[in-house]
What we know:
- The chain is built from 13 helices and 27 strands.
- The chain is of the alpha/beta class.
- The chain folds into 2 domains: 124 residues, Immunoglobulin-like (Sandwich); 350 residues, Alpha-Beta Barrel (TIM Barrel), CATH 3.20.20.80.
- Strands 1, 2, 18, 19, 20, 21, 22, 23, 24, 25, 26 and 27 form a 12-stranded mixed sheet that branches. The protein has an 8-stranded parallel beta barrel with strand order 3-4-7-10-12-13-15-17, surrounded by 4 helices.
- It is globular, with a radius of gyration of 25 Å.
Amino acid sequence: MDFGFLLFLFICTLPRISAQVFPEATVIVKGSSRTAETDDNFVCATIDWWPPEKCNYDQCPWGQSSILNLDINHPFLAKAIQAFNHLRIRLGGSLQDQVVYGVDNVDPCLPFMTVSNGLFGFSNGCLSMERWGKLNDLFQRTGAIVTFGLNALSGRSHIRRTIWGGAWNSTNARDFIQYTISKGYAVDSWEFGNELSGHGIGASVDANLYGKDLIGLKSILDDLCKKSNSQPLLLAPGGFFDQQWYARLLQVSGRGVISALTHHIYNLGRGDDMHLLRKILDPKYLDRVSDKYRDLQLTIQRHGPWASAWVSEGGGVFNNGGHLISNTFINSIWYLDQLGMAAKYNTKVFCRQTLIGGNYGLLDTETFIPNPDYYSALLWHRLMGNAVLSVDINASSFLRAYAHCRKQKQGISLLLINLSNTTQFTITIQNDMNIDLDEKISIKKTKSFVRVIKRTVSWIGKKASYDAEMREEYHLMAKDGYHQSKTMLLNGTPLEIAEDGGIPPLNPSLVAVNSPLSVAPMSIVFVVLPKFEARACA
C-alpha cells in the first residue's frame, strides 16, 4: 500500500475523528416554569457517631471525627462551615439508635465501646450535656442549621433476626429535647431513627409501630415548643426506601406529623468494589438511582402530599466510602450528578455523608483540609438557586446538564458534567421560551441552528459589553490530569486553603456570552448567565 493511498485514508477519516473528539452539543434551558424546588439550604453534611474502632476492608478511617470526639475548636473546621453562610449539619448515623442522652440520672456517661453482642459491634454510647453544649457553641459561631437524629430503638427489644418490637420509650428523648429548648439551642429539625425501615440495616421496626411512635413524638414536640417562636420539623425514617413500608408509615402517622420523608443513597455499593471508577463514569449506571427518587416522589404524592423528600444521608459508597476515590476529584462527578438528579425530583435537602470522617468526608479526617467535594458543594450552594429548570440536551449521554435559577440573583446557573475521558464537548446554550415546536424537533448539531435561534434570546447576537453580555464560568478539573487527585483546579488554579484555614476565593472566568463554551474530558463546569430570560426566575 503506497504512501499516497494511506494519506488519502487519513484525510477521509479526519472529519469522523474530529466529530468524536470535539462534538457540538446543544443545551436548551426551559425557563418558562419551575419543574421542582429545593430548600434554600439544599446542601447539607453529616457528622457521624462512629468511633475510631469502626473498620472495614482492613481500614479504620474515622479517627477523631465522631460527634463525641471531634476537635470542634479546630480553626479549619469553623472556617469551612462559615464559608457556606449557613450550612445544614445533620448529626446522626448507624449508632444513633444506641445513643443515650446524659440528662439528669445518666451516670456514668460513657462513649461507645466495642462489644461482641451489640448492634454493629458496639455498646450504647452517651452524649453528655457538656459535650452537647460545646457542639452548640460551634453551631452558633458558624451559623450552622442543625438536624439531630434521635434514638428510635430506646425501650424496644430484639425479637428475631433484624426485627425489633415493643413500645418506644420516649422518656430520655423528651428530657433531652426539653433540656435543649431550655438552653436556647437551635435545632431546626429532629429525625427519628436511622436505617430501621423495611428490612433495616442491623435492626428494623414495623411501619405501623413506627408511625404510632411518630405521632407520640410529634405530640411531645408540640407540647415542649408551644411557647417557642419556632417549631422544629419532624423527619423520618432516615432509611433505605421501601415503597410499601414508606407508604404505610405515611398512612399510619397521618397528616401534620412528618414534615419530610428521609432516605439514604449509597448507589455505588461497597467500599472495596474494584469497579467504583467505572460506575462513576457510566451514565447508564448513574441513571439507575433515578428510579428511587421518582418512586419516593410518587409515594409522597399518593400517600402523604403534606410531606417533602430529603436525602438525609448520601455517601455513594457504603462502609466508610471508597479509599482514594470518595475523597478525590473523580467523586465530584458522582456527587454533583446526585445533587442535580435529587433536585430534579423535588428533593428539598441532600445531606452528604460526611462533613468529616471516613473516606467520604468533605474535609480530610486528620488535617481538616477540604477535599475536592467540599469545593463542589460550596459552588453549588453559592450558585444554584432553589428553583429547578428543565433541560433538553442534544448530545451523548456522557454529557450531563442541570439548570437552576441563579442563587438570589437574576439569571440562571447551569451545571455541566463530562463523564468521557476522551471527548471534549463544544456547547451551545439556548433558551426555550420563544422556540416553536417545529424548531425544537429540527435541532441539529450545526451552526445553522444557532442562527435560527439567535433572535429568541436577549443575550445572543448583540455586541458584548463587560457589564451586560458576559457569563461566568467555573471549570473544575483534577490537578495534573490525575482524576484521583485530592487537589482540584478551578479555572486552572489549585484550590488551596490559607495558612489559617481560610477558604480560597472561588472566582469565575468572565467570558462573552456569544463565545464558544467547551467542556473538557472528565471535567465539571458551572456556568452563570446573568441576563438569561427565565420567567420562572422572576
